[in-house]
Design goal:
Blueprint (H helix, E strand, L loop, with lengths): L3 H19 L17 E13 L28 E13 L10 E8 L2 E5 L7 E13 L3 E13 L14 H8 L4 E14 L2 E14 L15 E15 L2 E14 L11 E15 L2 E14 L16 E12 L4 E12 L8 E13 L4 E13 L11 E14 L4 E14 L12 E13 L1
C-alpha cells in the first residue's frame, strides 16, 4: 500500500517545481543545455488534489443492524474524503533510434503509474502500476498496429460491504477499480491494402484477475475474475480517398469465475457480424462506426454449475462509435458510444452495457481551454433469471473543466464531476436505496520536462 508521508513529500516537491517552472516567462528550463531527445516521447509529473463527497456512491446510510465482513469496510452513504493523486509518466519511443526508415513509426513503452491517497478513508488508497506498449508501422501495401495496457493495482485485498446489500451496480464497480487486481487490455490489427480494397485481421483481449478475498457475507462485494477475447477480420472498400465502408466478423469467448459458494457463472461463445464506416466524409468530421448482430451461446447447466439466463442462445447487438467534429479552429465536439453484452463483476447474471459520451472542447485563448461533458451509462441485467438479481441501473454524468498552460512545461487544471445514479427496475421495494448522488471536485498541475 501507499507510503503516505513519502507521497505527500512528492506532492510538495511537485508544487515547488510548479513555482520554479512557471516563474520563467519564456517557459524554458533553468538549464539551457537540456533538450529532450527524439526517443523521449514524454517525461511528465502530475499532481491532483480532489474532494469526493460520496466515495462509495451509496444511497444507504447506516441501518440499525448489519454485519461487515472481516477486513472489509462499510460502504455507507455520504462518506467523503480528500484525495491526493501523483502521476509520473515516462514514455520512450525507440523508433527514431533505428535510423532513417519509414516502416516503423512507433515502438514505444511507457510507465504511467498513479499513486493515490484517500486521506479520510485509508481502505480506498491504492497504487496503480501501469505499463503501456504501442507498435505502429507499415507501408502503402501493409500496416500493423498493436497496443497493450497492463495494470497492477496495489490496493485493498477486501471488497466493501454495502449494508443490506443495497447498492447501485455502478457503485460496486467504482469501488472495484481501487481493489488489488491485474488488468490487461490488448488490441492487434494487420491491414493489407490492394487498390480501393483492404483486408484487416484483428484481435482484442480484456482480462481482469481480481486478487481480493471472496467471502459469502450478505452485502460483501466478491469480485469475479473474467475475460473477453476475440478475433476476426474486416473487409473494407474505400468509397473516397478518405472514407471506407467495411464488413467484419468476430468469433470470441467470455469466461467468468465461479465462486466456491455459488453455483452461478455465465461463460459463453459469441459470433458477430459487423457493418461500419471509418474515415472523413468531410474535412472537419472523422468517424469510426461499427455495429451488428451478436449471436450468443451460453454454456448449458451441469450438476455443479448453473448459467442464470432466460435464453441460452440469444441474439444481442454490438455497436461502437467514435465521432469527432472540428466545428471551428477553436471548437471540437466528440461523441463516443458502445453497446455490448458483458459478464457481471459479481459473478451472477450477465448484463447489456450501454455507454453514451458527449464532450465539447473550446479553445478560449492560446493558453486557456474549456471542457464540458455529458455521459449516460445503462446496465440492464434483465436477461438473467435470478429473482435476487432483478436490476436495471442508469447513471447520468455532467462534467466541466478548465486547463491553463502556464508555459511549455507547466499546465494547471480544475474540474468538477456530478453523477446521479438511478433505478429503472419496476417492482422494487425502496428503489431509492439503489440510487445515489455523487460530486467530485479537483485541482491539478502537470509538469513536462
Amino acid at each position: 500500500m501507499n507510503n503516505k508521508t513519502n507521497l505527500e513529500t512528492l506532492t510538495a516537491v511537485a508544487l515547488l517545481a510548479a513555482v520554479v517552472f512557471s516563474a520563467r516567462a519564456d517557459g524554458t528550463l533553468q538549464t539551457n543545455s537540456f533538450q529532450r531527445p527524439a526517443w523521449l516521447a514524454e517525461a511528465s509529473f502530475g499532481v491532483k488534489e480532489s474532494y469526493d463527497d460520496n466515495i462509495f456512491q451509496s444511497g444507504v446510510g447506516q441501518p440499525p443492524l448489519y454485519t461487515v465482513a472481516a477486513g472489509s469496510v462499510a460502504a455507507l452513504k455520504d462518506v467523503s474524503s480528500w484525495i491526493t493523486t501523483v502521476s509520473p509518466k515516462l514514455d520512450v519511443n525507440v523508433a527514431p533510434l533505428l535510423g532513417d526508415q519509414k516502416a516503423l513509426r512507433v515502438l514505444s513503452l511507457a510507465y504511467a503509474p498513479d499513486f493515490t491517497i484517500f486521506h479520510d478513508q485509508d481502505s480506498e488508497s491504492y497504487d496503480a502500476q501501469r505499463f503501456l506498449a504501442v507498435v505502429k508501422g507499415g507501408s502503402d501495401t501493409v500496416s500493423v498496429s498493436a497496443d497493450n495496457s497492463f495494470t497492477f493495482v496495489d490496493g485493498s485485498e477486501f471488497g466493501p460491504t454495502f449494508p443490506g446489500g443495497l447498492l447501485s451496480a455502478f457503485a460496486t464497480v467504482n469501488d472495484r477499480e481501487r481493489r488489488e487486481q491485474i488488468l490487461d487490455k490488448a488490441n492487434f490489427a494487420l491491414q493489407f491494402n490492394h487498390g480501393d480494397w483492404f483486408v484487416r485481421p484483428v484481435a482484442t483481449l480484456l482480462y481482469q484477475d481480481m486478487l481480493t478475498a471472496k467471502l459469502n457475507v450478505p452485502g460483501y462485494q466478491s469480485y469475479a475474475d473474467r475475460y473477453d477475447v476475440n478475433g476476426g477480420a474486416d473487409i473494407g472498400y474505400r468509397i473516397t480517398s478518405s472514407l471506407a465502408a467495411l464488413v467484419g466478423y468476430r468469433y470470441g469467448h467470455q469466461q467468468e469465475e465461479q465462486f466456491v459458494f455459488s453455483p452461478y457463472s455465465s461463460p459463453n461463445d459469441y459470433q458477430r457480424v459487423l457493418f461500419g464506416l471509418e474515415g472523413s466524409p468531410w474535412h472537419w468530421l472523422e468517424v469510426k462506426l461499427q455495429g451488428g448482430p451478436d449471436f450468443r451461446s451460453y454454456a448449458g447447466n451441469s450438476p455443479t454449475r448453473v448459467t442464470p439466463v432466460n435464453d441460452h442462445h440469444p441474439v444481442k447487438y454490438y455497436g461502437e462509435a467514435l465521432i469527432t467534429a472540428r466545428l471551428t479552429q477553436a471548437d471540437t465536439l466528440t461523441f463516443k458510444y458502445k453497446q455490448w453484452q458483458w459478464l457481471s463483476t459479481l459473478g451472477k447474471v450477465p448484463y447489456f452495457d450501454s455507454t453514451y459520451d458527449l464532450s465539447y472542447h473550446r479553445k478560449l485563448t492560446n493558453k486557456l481551454g474549456f471542457d464540458l461533458g455529458g455521459r449516460i451509462l445503462n446496465w440492464d441485467y434483465t436477461s438473467g433469471n435470478l429473482s435476487t438479481c432483478r436490476r436495471n441501473d442508469i447513471e447520468y454524468t455532467a462534467s466541466a473543466g478548465l486547463a491553463y498552460a502556464v508555459n511549455s512545461h507547466v499546465s494547471l487544471n480544475a474540474a468538477c464531476n456530478f453523477d446521479w445514479g438511478r433505478n429503472l427496475q419496476d417492482g422494487i421495494e425502496n428503489p431509492q436505496n439503489r440510487e445515489f448522488d455523487h460530486h467530485l471536485f479537483s485541482l491539478g498541475a502537470q509538469f513536462k520536462f
